[in-house]
Amino acid sequence: MMGDMRQSLLRRDALSAAKEVLYHLDIYLSGQVQNSPSPSVDTPTLELVEEFILHRRMSALQELQLLEIMCSCFQEQSRDAVRQLIFSALFTLQGNQADESRMALLGKLVSMAIAVGRVPILECAATWLQRSHTVYCVRLASGLVDDYCSLLPGSMVPTLNNISSSSPQFCCQFITAVTTLYDLSTELSPPVELLQMVVSWIQDDPRLVLVTLLNTPASSSQPMGSLDLTPLAGLVCWCVKSPLAYRRDRKQGLSNGMPDTKPEAGPLFSALHLSVLQVLLLLPGVLREKGLLGRLALMQPEQLTSLISDLSRLLEELNPLQGDTQTHTQLTLERLAQALQVAMAAGALLCSREDLRALCSHLPHNNLLQLVLSGPVQQSAFYPHVNTPPLGYSPRPLGPHLSAHSPHPTSRSPHPSSYPSYPSQPFIAGMAFPFRPSH
Question: Which of 23, 24, 170, 273 could form a disulfide with 126 if both were Cys (CB 3.0 to 4.6 A apart)?
Fold first, then answer.
């Protein structure tokens, strides 16, 4: 029967054949979901997908029409299980020559789904991002950023802003992928409008960063080489590295005779840093609910080791004793200290102070970092909810759910009054820790 179908498809034009395979896939998998306890796609059907959708040449117009047909197919299919199986049959990487065509078609389909607001496709793409290898997830994210920042500059924020509420799962996975793509270890840095959008999303709803964790059963395990369960580690790296990384990029640009025309990203990273600390403060309750408090490190020791190594290398490239560089160095170290203390208190980083001291031993001196490395790490109950406003930048006001928490905890400071008082903005109400927004 499958052979007869193939012969029939060979007589059709490329678009008509691809449309017929999609129709067959929909009918076949709907039956599988209805009649089988373990629905799956058989090999002959996968071969039809490869031959008539992925390998046949199409004109640009035919390809656009195919994308529109696929959008309609996913939109009209009411059962999520069937949609996910169709998406899996089309785009699960098989380790063969068709994978390049799969990635190209996937990038175009997700880009179109973003443009026209096809949420079912974005939900399927979120699942794909969670199950696929990081290398391919980064490729997909890179293509989407190119589409909306390079080919259509100025379109990313207005186009993607509403997606955070309609498909938070996709947005969470997308943030994880872009923080992996732009890790600031090289001169590749996130476009300012992408950074602005991420800050806006997280300020609107800090729990967006935890959506994948919230929706993942506690007993399940991540596929080998997949993206992190949350983008927290990547976001911490952005905030901590950014003062030095952007200082390096500016210095290299000027030495190459290039004018400094990039928009100022410092205030955005300052706002993002505060938002990340707010997210960390939500973690103990989430981890406790899932029975994972003290058992699941959302910031792995090897990620922290890589971060410290990158900071050391950045400092070698710059002169840490130079006026401006020294200011940026201290800002970086203060953000590192704040992130470490809150992450340990929240249960996101399961690491001893002895290990931290060894890791940070080659970094320049910073009073706050020394305090964190030498003093006791307080339990999360000692940390009141952050209720200070974003520093330096606020594209949108914080939602009411972030400002209606406990009253100002001036009487609950976990540090003795004998510690020196720093004349600067506290990063958490009631804590005399220095927080310097970049200017």
Answer: 170
3-state SS record for the chain: CHHHHHHHHHCCCHHHHHHHHHHHHHHHHHHHHHHCCCCCCCHHHHHHHHHHHHCCCCCHHHHHHHHHHHHHHHHHCCCHHHHHHHHHHHHCCCCCCHHHHHHHHHHHHHHHHHHHCCHHHHHHHHHHHHHCEHHHHHHHHHHHHHHHHHHCCCCHHHHHCCHHHHCHHHHHHHHHHHHHHCCCCCCCCCCHHHHHHHHHHHHHCHHHHHHHHHHCCCCCCCCCCECCCCCHHHHHHHHHHHHHHHHHHHHHHHHCCCCCCCCCCHHHHHHHHHHHHHHHHHHHHHHHHCCCCCCCCCCCHHHHHHHHHHHHHHHHHCCCCCHHHHHHHHHHHHHHHHHHHHHHHHCCCCCCHHHHHHHHCCCCCCHHHHHHHHCCCCCHHHCCCCCCCCCCCCCCCCCHHHCCCCCCCHHHCCCCCCCCCCCCECCCCCCCCCECCCC
Contact by Cβ (8 Å): 177, 230:
no
Backbone angles phi, psi at 325, to 5 degrees: -65, -40
Which of 192-201, 392-401, 413-422 is predicted most confidently? Answer: 192-201
Percentage, residues of the chain above pLDDT 70: 79
Mean pLDDT of the residues in the chain: 81
Contact between 93 and 135 (Cβ < 8 Å): no
- Of the chain, the percentage scoring pLDDT greater than 90 comes to 57
- In 3D space, the residue among 436, 5, 408, 399 whose CA is nearest the CA of residue 205 turns out to be 399
Token code pair at residue 354: 């002895």
- Nearest CA to 54 out of 88, 14, 25 is that of 14
- Give the C-alpha separation, 268 to 272, whole Å: 6
- 196 has a pLDDT exceeding 60: yes
Alpha-carbon gap, residue 86 to 73, rounded angstroms: 10
Q: Which amino acid is at 145?
A: V
Q: Helix/strand/coil (H, E, C) string of 123-188?
A: HHHHHHHHHCEHHHHHHHHHHHHHHHHHHCCCCHHHHHCCHHHHCHHHHHHHHHHHHHHCCCCCCC
Q: Which two structure tokens, joined as six digits, stand for 82?
A: 């069937």
pLDDT over 70 at 385, yes or no: no
Sign of the torsion formed by the C-alpha atoms of 164, 229, 279 and 263: negative
Range in 58-62, 234-238, 249-253 with the lowest mean pLDDT: 249-253
Q: What is the C-alpha separation between 296 and 214, in angstroms, rounded?
A: 13
